[in-house]
Amino acid sequence: MKKGIKTRKLGRTTNERKQLFRNLTRSLVMQGFIVTTLAKARAIKPLVEKLVTRAKNNKLSNLRELLTETGDLKIVQGLFEVGKVMIKRPGGYTRLLRLAPQIGNNAPTARLEWVEKIVTAEVVTKPEVTMTKTVEKKELAVQKATSPKKRTVSSKPKV
């Protein structure tokens, strides 16, 4: 009898499965949704929910554990942003929507997304001021006009 089996293997080795879950988590945090097979979405959902629950409490120990789980600081920062939005929600941070089957292998697909809209403010930087070609041409013309002219002596006699 199979008792106490909590993970879905998805036909992969342990390292492949961990990397798959890490990549799916990264895509969900960065894009806000993922479209994948139903089995992968069901496998990743409880893991993402646990990560968001941990990210709701902004402590150094939680940051370190999320960093070991995800492996990327940008993803951890994104999880903390999601945690700030979901602070009043006791659980159920994601929603699973079934989609049409895949063309080719007829595998059922699903869309995994956040329940609440995550809005992140992007940092807007000023564009660097660069000289245009016309300004450069004018500066070259000024330099030529102010520099002394050199006389060149031609070796050929005038005819």
TrEMBL record:
Residues 147-159 have a biased composition (Basic residues). Gene3D superfamilies: Ribosomal protein L17 (3.90.1030.10). One of its GO terms (molecular function) is structural constituent of ribosome. GO terms for cellular component: cytosolic large ribosomal subunit. One of its GO terms (biological process) is translation. Pfam families: Ribosomal_L17. Keywords: Ribonucleoprotein, Ribosomal protein. Residues 140-159 are annotated as: Disordered. Belongs to the bacterial ribosomal protein bL17 family. PANTHER family: LARGE RIBOSOMAL SUBUNIT PROTEIN BL17M, RIBOSOMAL PROTEIN L17. This is 50S ribosomal protein L17.
